[in-house]
């Protein structure tokens, strides 16, 4: 995919987005277009690494970052947020998804995930795979290493034979 694929936000509205970002502490999205270098996938991974710096993980000491790209070019980041009551901890991916959904964004193009582990790509846990699936089967998951190398899969690749709730009329 070309870097230009990211420029889905019409040029005339980008300044507006940027102004909106700078003028508001409430809104948490950033626009990828103003951070773009060579490839959007690498940019998304770099944003996930930035988010990893905010991880709150005193128990596992295992920081994770995520950066979620919407189909209209916005990025919502997340980090893991642990708790003394361990089952209340949140994964980075779910923090990013919940931030996006709570701001009105449900259409996603990709999510990048990162950790400090150098010898394997970080992969979303089973719970997060189901959460990602909630918002579509064919969007992209980028699982990275600190050196920016990554594995690219679709959501359904990571959760074959997925559970989908069929609601009876
Ligand atoms: O893909 C993953 C895997 C793990 N974690 C978090 C959960 C917990 O805080 C820590 C150790 O499992 O890493 C994530 O945020 N995302
Ligand atoms: Zn998870």
UniProtKB/TrEMBL annotation:
Cofactor field: Zn(2+)
Gene Ontology cellular component list: cytosol
Source domain of life: Eukaryota
MF-aspect GO terms: cytidine deaminase activity; identical protein binding; zinc ion binding
Annotated residues for binding of Zn(2+): 91, 125, 128
EC primary class: hydrolase
The EC number(s) this enzyme carries: 3.5.4.5
Keywords of the record: Hydrolase, Metal-binding, Zinc
Purpose: This enzyme scavenges exogenous and endogenous cytidine and 2'-deoxycytidine for UMP synthesis.
Entries under NCBIfam families matching the protein: cyt_deam_tetra, PRK05578.1
UniProt name for this protein: Cytidine deaminase
